[in-house]
Amino acid sequence: MTAPDHVRIMVRELPGPLAPGVPQKFEASTEAGEVLVRRTRHPFYAGARALLKHGLDPDTLVTMRWRSSGSDSVAPVPVRVAAGLTTEEGDNPIRIRRWHDPAKTGLRAGGIGRPAPSRAKTGWDGPETPTAFSGAPVPEQEFSA
Q1: Do residues 27 and 46 touch, judged by C-beta distance below 8 A?
Q2: Most CB atoms within 10 A, among 3, 20, 82, 91?
Q3: Eight-state DSSP code of residue 53
Q4: Can you tell me the distance from the alpha carbon of 137 to that of 48, in angstroms, rounded to the nearest whole number?
Q5: Residue 47: closest CA among 33, 57, 35
């Protein structure tokens, strides 16, 4: 069996009413329907970390497509690059940052300096994403929303 030349992460918005100030969550899966991450704010990056955890070659190209779309919404990049990123939200512009493993740093998945809430207070049962990334430094980029 040959390795794929690229992998597409399929994303769908999870249903449910949004409360003010509560960010939307998404599910990331493979084209075959295998769920990579059940609930995340960053489906492309979290999905890439899950693919690495499942043994995908770090140099394999990965892209993203919304389940409701017929075209990709993210240009292909090596999975090791996507797995090392996250977004920092809040005031515009949205910033792409290096991802910091919350299980190792005690920071939230965005790595923006606030301690993660305790499991007892939130009912949280594990990290938002798998923890298998150890890639090269990634420069910060800034995008306007």
Answers
A1: no
A2: 82
A3: H
A4: 16
A5: 35
Burial zone of 128 (CB within 10 Å; 0-12 exposed, 13-18 middle, 19+ buried): buried
Distance from C-alpha of 81 to C-alpha of 68, rounded to nearest angstrom: 25
Q: Using only the alpha carbons of the chain, give its radius of gyration.
A: 15
pTM of the full structure: 0.66
- Amino acid at residue number 98: R
Peptide linkage before 137 cis (omega within 30 of 0): no
Which tokens hold the place of 123? 């009912």
* pLDDT tens digits along 46-60: 999 999 999 999 999
List strand residue ranges (DSSP E) for 30-110, in order. 35-40, 61-66, 74-78, 85-88, 94-98
CA distance 137 to 91: 25
Over the stretch 7-64, which tens digit does the pLDDT of each residue have?
Answer: 999 999 988 656 776 778 899 999 999 999 999 888 999 999 999 999 999 999 999 9
State the pLDDT at residue 99.
84
Rounded to the nearest 5 degrees, what angle is found at the Cα of 94, between the Cα atoms of 102 and 15?
70
